[in-house]
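pasting for the record
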Amino acid sequence: MPAKTTRQGNNSDISSMNNQGLPELAATVEQNIKPVMTEAQRIAAQTSFSGRKAVSRGTMFLAFYLWLLSGAVMLSWIAQRTQFFPGDMAITKILQKRKNPLVRRFMLGISEIGFPKLSIPLSISFAAIFWALRFRLEAFFILLTSSSHLLNALVKRLIKRPRPTDELVTVARVINEPSFPSGHVMHYINLFGLLSYLLATNWRSGRLRNILIAICIALIAFVGPSRVYLGAHWPSDVMAGYLYGGLWFGGIMALYLRVKSWIHPSQGRTPEAMKPLQQPNEDEEE
């Protein structure tokens, strides 16, 4: 009995220490993290455009982007009836002639970001950053970019085009699913395209903003060649990925602008239910 009593006493002491330690830990975290978050939110608010101006700028970007999109249906019709397009083999051979180890590592690194083990955590992290900066509508739409995989899966199922094989080109990794269109390219167009779009339309020009936009654009530009270089896709798969990805991205931007214009109307006030989604500097004078 004394031993049991002692054990109970020790458990009570540990529980008491935990109860005392947790509030202190929470207070310490709040003291250190809250000022950093407050300052980050202040800087984000000061360097961003108002919601109304972001809608105007975003509409111009959307109109220009939609003008570039055409030919996706015709490209798919041809892909369903041929193993590869004229030029597919020649372009692949030209790219794969570059055997430099640095080039190979670069191409592998660019592509690796598009596989689920990295793409999912990255999307969630980007959304969390925007949410923490009080750009909550933008955080939601960053997560929504993953919906491009639905269109990609549907088109692949309909076209059923085989991937390049070792008999024709050098294949770095065998992937057992249809080739047309490139899922990597569609994902990059939507995720990194939206990040570029949000940075360009919601924040004023600055070194950090411009560097981030340049990185996003570089990822979009290089992911296509990387998929061809690694033997995962034909160039026509990549071209279709840009077109289909752009088409889906255009829809996401249109929906984003529609919701944003509702939250930040050109006249009148924001509906009460939508105020939590307002940008932090909405009260700033134009």
